[in-house]
Specification:
2 copies of one chain form a homodimer.
Chain A (H helix, E strand, L loop, with lengths): L6 H9 L1 H10 L5 E2 H8 L3 H13 L3 E6 L2 E6 L2 H16 L10 H7 L1 E3 L2 E3 L1 H12 L3 E4 L2 E4 L1 H9 L4 H6 L6 E4 L6 E4 H13 L3 E3 L6 E3 L1 H10 L4
Antiparallel strand pairs in A: 1-3, 2-3, 4-5, 6-7, 8-9, 10-11
Helix pairs in contact in A: 2-3, 3-4
Chain A binds a DNA duplex through helix 4.
DNA sequence: CGGATGCTTCGATTAGGATCGAAGTATGAA
DNA sequence: TTCATACTTCGATCCTAATCGAAGCATCCG
């Protein structure tokens, strides 16, 4: 009688406030240590450790040992996409955990969505790429056109490396603030990395917000014009 | 410090097995009574009533009184989309609640996703519409082209009525079995209704599976050819 | 008006799990 | 080796929330 996947397990993992805080922190894209995550969730290290074990068992997280630190991160793009979709619904219901403060506009303008750019800027970037026929949409699969490939390589992104991986190069991710799609996948990640490497944008400490420098703003507008 | 929407509340609502079973049952698209939902979840009526109140308070469900019955249904398309995205992740992790049985292939072939067609057939339908340039994708917004509008009206769907409503006519919904998008929105709903009204397809009892008749198979293949 | 059905509210019980103190393991530094 | 840091495991406590019996409303039917 029961059919379909088991959503209760996933839901219960996300449903605990401490774990939800950890996951939200990890949506910032940085891998974090158990101690940092415990601080984010406002709990002791012991409790955090037990939560992290559960999240890992559920497939939401992976850990990487590095010296005596253990870095935790979301296990795959899918997890970020799923969380973003839940955030979208929660936001539409007005379920925010903070009184809308000064940080809120910054988040809506540009923020990290796990490993790629989201918010107004993220949406504008994908729109621009599609309008310029550098990315094509069929079904729901985004595909980089030849023009797009050339463009990406001109920006200094190693397209061959992207192609080698089994990860999708382009995929859509629903933006909770804009209610539209932005670009995820390995190309989305590479582009954000590029912006940061070039000094056009900076991640804010302890926040998902991304701050563009003046040069960055200008470069972004030139690269991704709005038609 | 805490920023972004509160996903814990939504997660905890979905995280209870009884509630998850109810939500899954409602993904079948039919509005169900409290008694029916209690049976689906395997709990008493009292318990079900308390769960339903919580789901309604959380904005996931709406109820409609009809005589002495109360019919519950998912409150909006967004809820279905979110649940489908969680199912997608759960399925990719192999978290299914049943041993893959004879029903499984039927579900993958064609099923109801809240109010529209999903599974292989759902994906094929959207692909075909896009290939025939009757639906266009920009950003993530699907838009019905003039050709598409004519086509829809030729099928006997009241396009004007769709347009009047504030609901999006076309939107994408990620398919958990196919990992691709299919057509949701009011047009997606109208098309599924059409198939059923014409006798081309039937909803199975107590299942999300949709069974196409022989005539239906033929008509579907003609209407939505694969290029 | 009964009497039946569908559902909600109340109250008491119970179980699961979140929490943290304390102790244990692993890695690095001095 | 010794100490410190980073984290896990164990054990006990405590609290929330799921559960159901019983009683209370609401609606329909005859």
């Amino acid at each position: 009688m029961k059919e379909g996947p088991d959503i209760a397990l996933i839901g219960s993992l996300i449903g605990d406030p401490a774990r939800a805080n950890m996951l939200t922190a990890l949506m910032g894209g940085r891998a974090l240590t158990a101690t940092e995550l415990a601080a984010h969730a406002g709990i002791t290290l012991q409790t955090a450790s037990s939560h992290l074990a559960k999240l890992e068992a559920g497939g939401l997280l992976t850990q990487r040992k590095q010296g005596r630190h253990r870095y935790f991160a979301l296990s795959e793009d899918e997890v970020g996409l799923m969380l973003e979709s839940i955030m979208g619904f929660a936001a539409s219901r007005g379920l925010t955990r903070h009184r809308p403060g000064p940080k809120d506009p910054a988040l809506r303008k540009a923020r990290v969505c796990y490993n790629h750019l989201a918010g107004d800027y993220g949406v504008r970037m994908l729109d621009s790429l599609v309008a310029a026929r550098q990315i094509e949409m069929t079904g729901d699969d985004l595909t980089l056109t030849d023009a797009g490939q050339a463009r990406v390589e001109a920006l200094g992104i190693d397209y061959a490396a992207l192609k080698k991986s089994r990860r999708p190069i382009c995929r859509t991710c629903l933006d909770w603030s804009e209610r539209r799609s932005h670009l995820a996948g390995s190309l989305g990640e590479a582009l954000l990395t590029l912006f940061i490497d070039k000094g056009w944008a900076k991640r804010e400490q302890n926040s998902r917000a991304i701050r563009f420098t003046d040069t960055g703003e200008k470069a972004f507008s030139e690269l991704f014009p709005q038609y």
